[in-house]
Amino acid sequence: MTESQAKTFLFEKNQNPLAASEREALLENPGFGRVFTDHMVTIRYSEGRGWHDGRIEARRAFDLDPATVVFHYAQEIFEGMKAYRLRDGGAALFRPDANARRFRNSALRLAMAPLPEDMFVQSVRELVRVDRDWIPSADGAALYLRPFMISTEVLLGVKPSSDYIYCVIASSVGSYFKGGAPAVTLWVSENYTRAAPGGTGEAKCGGNYAASLAAQAEATREGCEQVIFLDAVERRYVEELGGMNVFFLFDDGSLQTPPLTGTILPGITRDSLITLARDLGLTVREEPYAIDRWEADAKSGRLTEAFACGTAAVVTPIGQVKGRKYNFTIGSGGAGQVTGKLKAALLDIQNGRAPDPHGWIDRLF
Ligand code: PLP
Ligand code: COI
Questions:
Q1: Could you tell me the pTM of the whole model?
Q2: Which of 22, 124, 152, 198 has the greatest number of beta carbons closer than 10 A?
Q3: Any idea which ligand is nearest the CA of 228?
Q4: CATH for 5-174, among 3.40.50.720, 3.40.50.300, 3.40.50.1000, 3.30.470.10?
């Protein structure tokens, strides 16, 4: 399928959509990832035939054989992006081309069939247009899009699957953290690492998240909202959170974030914030930062703010860091001023309240 063919997804309207009154009630307080829209996109791939059978239809369960590859060897990738309600009632995606590129890179790393990037973008645009009534308009709310791909060959032999289903579902969301947490507490994972050099750390595959859950459970037991991972080689350098990148702000006004060396996810929010920070006149470094340095800098006051960022988490201040060997507070333990400024700069572009000098907004209607 080419771009123009992708526009002609076979469309079968959901004959049993949720009543408007029930939808509106759900949109009042959707939480994160619990409220789903009426439709989904699917496109199939098979070796020899390529991508075919693009559809938009009622969201429904898959019927899969128990020997389907994905159930056994986790050949699965996904993306996370949002459609934002604009001030004038329209809606826009944010840098969907960047998600399309990352999805393709993830597919290649997992030895899956790469979906053409224009088809990815088109599929997301079409779903948002069809389910436009599900885009919430409250501050901080959005329609979260979850494109994903699973291997569907029925086989227990270990090899790349010959068949795939690409699918996009959509979920009306509010804040990722309960109660919109003003600042989160992190747990330093010393027992577990997330990704090693040569592994799948920079791919967005389900396996990375499965591997992070024991560490996340440990964090929860310790009263922390999120886990922060250290590098797998020296167990010293800060990498990222389970589902977010991390930034540090210093008293000289400079900003630092771990470099993209293959073990962390190249976040689109991370990339956008680097650009916005430079627009605001800040110096930004992509350099490793050691956990013992972080503790010393937080205690001396050289480090003034730290925050996590991602599509789901947006920009979330880090208030405190705990671990078997660590316990320190960042700044006053609450939301810092520069963090707030960067968050506002990002949200203002995403919600169409500010000009879009970098061409990031993809207006849908
Ligand atoms: N790191 C991980 C492990 C993630 O799951 C995410 C979320 O997608 C991010 C970072 C941030 O990426 P993005 O800003 O593209 O959402
Ligand atoms: C996202 O921010 O889109 C993610 O995929 C992170 C996940 C933890 C919800």
A1: 0.96
A2: 124
A3: 1
A4: 3.30.470.10
